[in-house]
TrEMBL record:
This is Electron transport protein DsrP. Keywords: Cell membrane, Membrane, Transmembrane, Transmembrane helix. Gene3D superfamilies: Formate dehydrogenase/DMSO reductase domain. GO terms for cellular component: plasma membrane. It is found in: Cell membrane. The chain crosses the membrane at residues 16-37, 57-79, 91-109, 129-150, 162-187, 193-217, 238-256, 268-297, 309-334, 365-383.
Length: 404
């Protein structure tokens, strides 16, 4: 492979300033929503005492999973020594940081009292997976920042593979921690399953790579950076593998639940009679987010078009978001079974209630979109300040032996 030359974005086009302006406006709207939720309380949201994780948490976990998964591009180059991916490592690490900051911003602003974040960061209950996740998220930011520094600083490049290995292991632990939030939660029948951790890891790989492909194609289109078919072919094929892997774990999760008699109720709710949750599972995740992308990626005629690759990446993101909505919101909407095997004649703890309803408020959606805008804003500014982007990704600039 030729020595790669990296560059900054020129950042003087109307499109660049337009993206900055739109992102800034969306961030401001997100902060305005957070202010209203803090001032009036969560009563203005669709969340209740039964559904305590709402739309902001979907956006936050979506970004956190994408942050973990997008780092996989850099890991393939440094950990698995596939130098074909090495030119994309800087952009991959940058996106891992900015996406995670966007996701964590949503969680912090949704706390209701962001001013008490210091208490949450200094008072720990280590029996809670949430306490461990604070370490995992902060550790991820530090490790990836060091990894990126070693990647960009020539004097430190001898430590670059070691930093890449540490970052790779940490991202697996981080996603395991995120999945374990639900895997360890015994009160909800839809959760409380060890398979949640590998399911979230597989989902993070597909979401992260889909986001990376979208940003790479957008950047190369806007900056007229040469992008060879060879360098686009492998991430595209890898995306298909990750989508199929996520589908496999979703399949295993539901087959396991169907085998357990006490979980037939929640399975019927999600797969057959859950209304919006059933629709999002079959239509949003399975059809739009899994089957259509796989057709676009593997069909020999359709996968030659960059528009179809872009469409496949967008559909994967839509499908992942739908699946998270089904898992997180649907799992809470199904009534609690506090006394399994017992007949509850009267209760004030909503364990004998019908399905809990949830309609996300515009404040929640504004806060979630604001988190995405924070990631976009930080990425856009960073690309102008430091050289994260290869000057060329043409096939001719890669080692011909690495090309099929």
């Amino acid at each position: 492979m030729k020595n790669m030359v990296y560059r900054e974005l020129e950042g003087n086009s109307p499109g660049y300033y337009g993206l900055l302006g739109i992102s800034a406006i969306l961030v401001a709207l997100g902060l305005f929503a957070a202010y209203n939720m803090e001032h009036h309380g969560h009563v203005i949201t669709g969340m209740t005492n039964q559904i305590v994780w709402g739309m902001p948490h979907i956006f936050a976990i979506f970004l956190i999973l994408a942050a973990s998964g997008v780092l996989n591009v850099a890991s393939i180059g440094s950990v698995f020594r596939k130098t074909f991916y090495s030119p994309l490592g800087r952009l991959s690490a940058l996106l891992a940081i900015t996406l995670l900051i966007g996701g964590l911003s949503i969680l912090v602003l949704d706390l209701g009292h962001p001013d008490r974040l210091l208490v949450a960061m200094t008072t720990y209950n280590f029996k809670s997976i949430f306490a461990w996740n604070i370490y995992l998220y902060n550790g991820f930011l530090v490790i990836v920042a060091v990894y990126l520094w070693f990647m960009m600083e020539r004097r430190m490049q001898r430590y670059y593979p070691v930093a890449g290995l540490v970052a790779f292991i940490w991202r697996l632990i981080l996603t395991t921690g995120t999945g374990s939030i639900f895997g360890f939660l015994v009160a909800r029948e839809a959760y409380n399953a060890a398979i949640m951790a590998p399911l979230f890891i597989a989902l993070s790989l597909s979401l992260g790579l889909a986001a990376f492909i979208l940003i790479l194609l957008t950047d190369c289109t806007e900056t007229h950076c040469p992008l060879g078919e060879g360098i686009l072919h492998r991430p595209k094929s890898l995306l298909g593998v990750f989508v199929a892997a996520a589908f496999y774990f979703v399949l295993a999760y539901h087959f396991t639940n169907l085998y357990i008699t006490e979980r037939h109720g929640i399975e019927y709710f999600i797969l057959v009679g859950g209304g919006i949750y059933t629709f999002l599972f079959w239509g949003g995740y399975l059809l739009i987010g899994t089957l259509l992308p796989l057709i676009l990626i593997y069909h020999p005629q359709l996968n030659q078009s960059r528009k179809n690759i872009t469409l496949a990446a967008v559909l994967v993101l839509i499908g992942g978001f739908s699946l998270l909505y089904v898992i997180i919101i649907g799992g809470q909407a199904y009534p609690l079974d506090i006394f399994p095997g017992m007949e509850v004649t009267a209760s004030g703890f909503f364990d004998n209630s019908p399905v809990h309803s949830y309609v996300p408020s515009h404040w929640e959606i504004m806060l979630g979109i604001g988190g995405i805008a924070i990631s976009v804003l930080l990425t856009t500014l960073a690309l102008k300040i430091l050289p994260f982007l290869p000057a060329s990704l043409a096939d001719a600039d890669l080692d011909p032996q690495l090309l099929d």
